[in-house]
Amino acid sequence: LGLVKYFRYIIIGGGVAAGYAAREFDRQGLKPGELAIISKEAVAPYERPALSKGYLNPKGAARLPEFHVCVGSGGERLLPGWYKEKGIQLFLSTEIVKVNLGSRTLISAAGETFKYQTLIIATGSTVIRLTDFKIEGADAKNIFYLRELEDADELAESMKAKKNGKAVIVGGGYIGLEVGAAMRINNFDVSMIYPEPWCMPRLFTPAIAAFYESYYANKGIKIIKGTVAVGFNANPNGEVTGVKLNNGRVLEADIVVVGVGARSLTTLFKGQVEEEKGGIKTDKFFKTSMPGVYAVGDVAAFPIKLYNEVRRVEHVDHARKSAEQAVKAIKASETGKEIEEYDYLPYFYSRSFNLSWQFYGDNVGDTVLFGDNNPSSPKPKFGSFWIKDGKVVGAFLEGGTPEENKAMAKIARLQPRVENVDQLKKEGLAFASKI
Ligand code: FAD
Question: Percent of the chain, pLDDT > 70?
């Protein structure tokens, strides 16, 4: 076996899920040398959401080791020394380029061979690039994407070089909204463009979106909706200078940040495990169709018990919880014990400027807006309920306290019946708080 590195457990990917899995292995009892984490990134697992938030602050920006896992959920920070102390091997800057699940073998770009007894796939997602669509000039310098620490470092570097310059944000999802705000706070002249009629269209209702769009406009951010970038201009150094829109307009730009979506990294496993909904299919214990192989986080397509449906969830709370569930399941299977099925309530949040929202549940059915959604209010607080088949199934709240957010989570979980929609609108948060 000479050059083969063998581990009882290997996690491929060193992101959020990997970090929380490592902590759970430790809790469940792990012997030194049993676990390895193999990551393309150069650093130990960290809380990825920081990259589009605190990492871009003009003053006191968050930097590692501050936001290593598991601080994002109020836990202890796992510094690189923690892994060492526990005898967990971190193979960093190591990309796996070939996988043979049949022979339980992984091969790295440098040609190392790894073997395992149990594998956890935690490769997460990768960004969709404008070069994927062959958009003219999309490979110019200072056009950025944001997924990994390295991307955030490059953006931060360029923000220094192009101080007080012009930024164009392509995409109206949460990455676009968070980075747009961060660029504005850094005194950039910010424009945002997206093709949809309102921002965050997959979650926001028009009424919710209207609040954020007005709030952003009040901050001096120019939002151009219903447009896409069809090309980029560059100077002789190859640096981007302008964004060409499909309506013929050209926006000047020193920096462009693109947030147009992500796709899960499953290519290595193609044809070797069952897939569904663009991810790797698992059961309620995150077991894949291949014995001894689990998949967690962004890549997992798993059954959501509450909705009796297989879904993929690309949010940090699920990355953490699915990792813990998989490790519990692995340990239980070794001792013949049983654990409870995963029973996940979808939860997603975002923060920008002084705003902070949380969403729980499912955004289907009719909606009811409540509260103070005036973007000029000193402390706006408003929300929305989604009602399906006469029951509240989804709950959104901007500006809530921890207790209020908890009440919203509870309502999305318990799905109380709504007798009177007007009453619900009037009561708003109070309806959730009394459940
Ligand atoms: P990741 O954390 O992406 O980790 C995957 C890891 O696998 C990476 O380290 C990658 O380098 C590595 N990898 C991939 N392929 C290989 C390979 N072949 N060999 C070796 N290593 C490999 N969610 C929220 O709920 N709220 C937020 O506010 C929020 N903000 C976000 C902000 C940003 C900028 C980003 C990018 C995401 C944000 N998310 C947010 C989403 C959240 O971060 C992800 O859902 C979460 O990180 C998924 O965890 P994961 O472990 O599945 O994947």
Answer: 100
How confident is the model over 21-79, as pLDDT tens digits? Answer: 999 999 999 999 999 999 999 999 999 999 999 999 999 999 999 999 999 999 999 99
Burial class of residue 370 (count of CB atoms within 10 Å of its CB; 0-12, 13-18, 19+): buried
- What is the pLDDT, as a whole number, of residue 1? 44
432 lines ligand 1 (CB under 6 A): no
* Residue 37 · residue 123 · CB < 8 Å: no
Task: Give the Cα separation of 63 and 71 in Å (integer).
Answer: 13
CA of 133 to the centre of ligand 1 (A): 23
- CA 332 to CA 211: how far, in whole Å? 47
Which ligand 1 atom sits nearest the alpha carbon of residue 297? 52
Q: Write down the ipTM of this complex.
A: 0.99
Helix (H, G, I), strand (E, B) or coil at 141: strand
For ligand 1, the distance from its centroid to the CA atom of residue 178, given in whole angstroms, is 16
Q: How far is the CA of 246 from the centre of ligand 1 (A)?
A: 32
* DSSP SS3 for 390: coil
Say yes or no: CB of residue 428 within 6 Å of ligand 1.
no
For residue 52, give the ligand 1 atom closest to its CA. Answer: 34
How far is it, in rounded angstroms, from Cα 397 to Cα 383? 4
Q: Using a 6 Å cutoff on CB, does residue 122 contact ligand 1?
A: yes
Determine the distance separating the centroid of ligand 1 and the alpha carbon of 389, expressed in angstroms. Answer: 35
Nearest-angstrom CA–CA distance, 133 and 262: 14
Residue pLDDT, tens place only, 351-383: 999 999 999 999 999 999 999 999 999 999 999
354-433 matches 4-125+263-335 in CATH topology: no
Topology of the domain comprising 130-260 = FAD/NAD(P)-binding domain (3.50.50)
Residue 329 CA to residue 375 CA, distance in Å, equals 46
CATH topology for 354-433 is: Enolase-like; domain 1 (3.30.390)
Place domain 4-125+263-335 in its CATH homologous superfamily. Answer: FAD/NAD(P)-binding domain (3.50.50.60)
- Ligand 1 within 6 A of 288 CB? no
Residue 75 CB coordination number (10 Å)? 13
Asked if the model's pLDDT at residue 2 lies above 80, the reply is: no
